[in-house]
Amino acid sequence: MSASRPQSRPTPRPGVLSIQAYVPGKSSAPGVAKIFKLSSNETPLGPSPHALEAYRRVGEHLEDYPDGSASELREAIGRAFGLDPARIVCGAGSDDLLNLLARAYLADGDEAIHTTHGFLVYPIATLGTGATPVVAAEKDFTADVDTILAAVTPKTKLVFLANPNNPTGTYVPFDEVKRLHRSLPPHVLLVIDAAYSEYVRRNDYESGIELVATSENVVMCRTFSKIHGLAALRLGWMYGPAHVVDAINRIRGPFNVNGAAIAAGIAAIEDTAHQERSREHNTKWLAWLTDEIGKLGLPVTPSVANFVLIHFPTTKGRTAADADKFLTARGLILRQVGAYKLPNALRMSVGTEEANRLVVQALAEFLGSKR
Length: 371
Ligand SMILES: Cc1ncc(COP(=O)(O)O)c(C=O)c1O
What we know:
alpha/beta; seven-stranded mixed β-sheet; binds pyridoxal-5'-phosphate; single chain; 16% strand; globular; 12 helices; four-stranded antiparallel β-sheet; 36% helix
């Protein structure tokens, strides 16, 4: 468009209209009385009772602004992980932080790399800055360090790595993450999104803390939406080098984390017993679902997170879309993942025992029924 020709209406910056708006997991099934929402990787155990109590207390004082620097929360996170609170920034969900990182480090003409089935917020955040998302192919539904490195060009400014990844549930071992970091140019920011790290039970996994602590170009993002069960409050945090923290603090909203989120977040991070219960529930039912769904003949990608990716045949009547319809009619809401380039799969969050058993039963019925 030429600068001399006046526009008839405001136009967003380049890239914005290329964004496919994020579509959250379904939460209803018309005409079904009892719903089991297994579409957004929420915890079946809910938040810590202490977090609920702290949340309710904030309700007495809604007239007060929250602490804009979330100091007490950053201190509580610092204590929980042995980190310097000055190197933590809190956000309205880790989405907020991922977008802030993109805004701070990307501009028109830059490139940001994510992997084929990477979390959808990465291309959205990238396009919103005018930069170009570059997709690095995965191997076996897993991020691959060599293809990420091969995608690096002089225009690359940022690499998003979800570890574990959503919606695949797979992870990159720490040695490989370190190799990725070692081989990236020092001006490229590596963003490790560890939203599901609390669920991982693997000796060769590390959430990113160690790399952040020892380098100048790595940031780790975490969330309170998953194991802490505070998705509705929108709360996340990042740990990064001082210069990145400084940049994000300059552009974030002055009160980007609300008072209820701060209070509940402190109580949640301190309730390690609740976190342990959630982890144990997940470990048990993740293995059970993987086995039982596998026995039905549906391949399940090995997951270390709080969800499973279930693959369906392309045969008419047996597809992921058919299964979704069948399950939804029974109040079992899974997530279609076509937008993640996985049209033949459904993602299921690990639910309560009741929900997990109902899904396996329903899938058996679905596969056994004449269609
Ligand atoms: C990989 C990944 N990162 C970040 C998020 C966003 O979490 P939050 O609720 O903190 O914005 C999610 C949520 O589904 C996720 O799957």
